[in-house]
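Researcher: Let's do a round of design. I'm pasting the structure tokens now; please hold your answer until I've finished.
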């Protein structure tokens, strides 16, 4: 758990010049607060340690104060960065790789109560207002543009553009 948290903090450290300033700024970041609560209860969940009803109250408090809902059942690699808080919702079956960046208004969900959510690779950037719906696979180093709606798999390095998802492949072609 502490290695994952260290990875999350390292993603914040790049713009700051001192680690103390980074730590203080990070602790004031609503995104990091939500990630820390997720990391704690995810660790307890994976080790089958009881955490209810405390988990319920902490997760609801984070949802109300930050607008970020990350269930403990999600699997998220180290280095998650939430740039702007608010309106971020993850399905409990969502899987995110390492060093992903998420902006405000992002939903990673199922298809309306059936199936699972996406598996997202490493180094993926998910723009503001993007929606990733259904059991899709997002390759490493993909970019999901603002307000894009992704309902199909994306290969490594692709970019999702627009509300009707079109893919721009690394070779430049668009479908």
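Researcher: That's everything. Go ahead.
Model: Designed sequence:
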């Amino acid at each position: 758990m502490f290695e994952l948290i260290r990875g999350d903090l390292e993603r914040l450290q790049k713009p700051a010049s001192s680690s103390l300033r980074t730590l203080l700024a990070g602790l004031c970041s609503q995104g990091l607060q939500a990630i820390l609560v997720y990391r704690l209860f995810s660790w307890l969940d994976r080790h089958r340690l009881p955490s209810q009803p405390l988990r319920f109250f902490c997760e609801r408090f984070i949802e109300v104060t930050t607008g970020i809902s990350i269930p403990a059942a999600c699997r998220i690699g180290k280095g998650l960065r939430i740039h702007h808080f608010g309106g971020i919702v993850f399905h409990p079956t969502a899987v995110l790789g390492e060093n992903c960046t998420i902006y405000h208004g992002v939903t990673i969900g199922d298809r309306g109560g059936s199936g699972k959510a996406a598996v997202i690779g490493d180094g993926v950037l998910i723009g503001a207002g993007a929606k990733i719906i259904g059991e899709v696979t997002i390759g490493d180093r993909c970019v999901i543009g603002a307000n894009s709606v992704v309902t199909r798999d994306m290969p490594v390095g692709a970019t999702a553009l627009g509300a009707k998802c079109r893919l721009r492949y690394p070779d430049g072609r668009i479908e």
